[in-house]
């Protein structure tokens, strides 16, 4: 017989089951990492870097604290866009191999939580950027989030094979926001940085789509590879790469260019053109036989392409105070 006040065997069993259930619930609850993954940290890193280059390439100095705050809130705004994108695209993310492990299709985060997080961070980032720098920068960040979430994600992505072309503008805005945060004004130079990212985006994603076409087929996303086929996509990659090369090399003679940037641009664009030409000359049998080796190599190069161009612009900006950067 148990002493008075001690739980019975049945009560102990119930308590044990409750403890196990509580432990299971806690393990299934979203972690900080799950919420952070909603912000698309890889994309956010590109947003941060290009915005930082735009900020530092501006012709006026920015106090380090203000500069840090500007980049922080631009990063948060980029993350907010990612969360809202995942909220809206949850249905197709669970179909595509490349995205099915994201927090929502994996069952780690509820759609409603992603929406709430995205909206809260959007408001916070735009208001705080406006207060930390200037209202123009905060308003432009708000427009960028709207463009990415509404114009691209909700409308163009599932409506036209030119989705990635027009939608690429959203990813090209961060250096412009960084420049505005520093100066409060517009000029030609940040739009050259915008154009670099804008023209780079289609060949970058179309190369990915060439060896991931089944994903877009399964999800019903009208990527160019799905609506017009791989042959047409290869032609588009070559054309955009040629236009991008002209733009990238020409930027070397602008206010954000210089000998360092020009050298980097000439080498990188020669490699990029060579890769696009190899993709253009291939046929489907060759591609299938070697598992799209040329397309995969081009895609990997494209990841370095934008980083090195913006890195060269940053080097030119850092050298200018010593009379070494620019022309």
TrEMBL record:
The lineage of its organism: Bacteria, Pseudomonadati, Pseudomonadota, Alphaproteobacteria, Rhodobacterales. It comes from Phaeobacter gallaeciensis. Converts heme B (protoheme IX) to heme O by substitution of the vinyl group on carbon 2 of heme B porphyrin ring with a hydroxyethyl farnesyl side group. It comes from the Bacteria. It catalyses: heme b + (2E,6E)-farnesyl diphosphate + H2O = Fe(II)-heme o + diphosphate. One of its GO terms (biological process) is heme O biosynthetic process. The gene is cyoE. The keyword Transmembrane applies. Pfam families: UbiA (PF01040). It is an enzyme of class 2 (transferase). This is Protoheme IX farnesyltransferase. The chain crosses the membrane at residues 43-62, 68-88, 109-130, 136-156, 163-185, 191-212, 233-253, 259-277, 298-319. It is found in: Cell membrane. Gene3D superfamilies: UbiA prenyltransferase. One of its GO terms (cellular component) is plasma membrane. Belongs to the UbiA prenyltransferase family. Protoheme IX farnesyltransferase subfamily. Interacts with CtaA. Carbon 2 of the heme B porphyrin ring is defined according to the Fischer nomenclature. The keyword Transmembrane helix applies. Pathway: Porphyrin-containing compound metabolism; heme O biosynthesis; heme O from protoheme: step 1/1. Its main location: membrane. It is a multi-pass membrane protein.
């Amino acid at each position: 017989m148990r002493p008075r006040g001690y739980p019975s065997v049945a009560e102990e069993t119930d308590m044990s089951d409750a403890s196990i259930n509580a432990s299971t619930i806690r393990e299934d609850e979203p972690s900080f990492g799950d919420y952070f993954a909603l912000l698309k940290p890889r994309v956010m890193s590109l947003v941060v870097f290009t915005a930082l280059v735009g900020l530092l390439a501006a012709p006026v100095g920015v106090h380090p604290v203000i500069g840090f705050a500007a980049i922080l809130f631009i990063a948060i705004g980029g993350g907010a866009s990612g969360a809202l994108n995942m909220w809206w695209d949850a249905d197709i993310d669970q179909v595509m191999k490349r995205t099915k492990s994201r927090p929502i299709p994996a069952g780690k985060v509820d759609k409603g939580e992603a929406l709430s997080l995205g909206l809260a961070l959007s408001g916070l980032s735009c208001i705080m950027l406006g207060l930390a720098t200037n209202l123009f920068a905060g308003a432009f960040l708000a427009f960028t989030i709207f463009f990415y979430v509404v114009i691209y994600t909700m409308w163009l992505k599932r409506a036209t094979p030119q989705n990635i072309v027009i939608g690429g503008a959203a990813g090209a805005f961060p250096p412009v926001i960084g420049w505005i945060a520093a100066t409060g004004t517009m000029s030609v130079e940040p739009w050259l940085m915008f154009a670099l990212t804008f023209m780079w985006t289609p060949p970058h994603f179309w190369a990915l789509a060439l060896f991931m076409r089944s994903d877009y087929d399964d999800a019903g996303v009208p990527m160019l590879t799905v609506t017009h086929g791989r042959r047409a996509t290869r032609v588009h990659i070559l054309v955009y790469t040629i236009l991008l090369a002209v733009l990238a090399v020409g930027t070397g003679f602008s206010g954000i260019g210089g000998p360092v940037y020009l050298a980097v641009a000439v080498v990188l664009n020669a490699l990029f053109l060579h890769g696009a030409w190899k993709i253009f000359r291939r046929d489907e049998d060759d591609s299938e036989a070697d598992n799209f080796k040329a397309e995969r190599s081009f895609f990997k190069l494209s990841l370095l392409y934008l980083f090195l161009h913006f890195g060269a612009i940053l080097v030119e900006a850092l050298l200018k105070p010593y009379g070494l950067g620019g022309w």
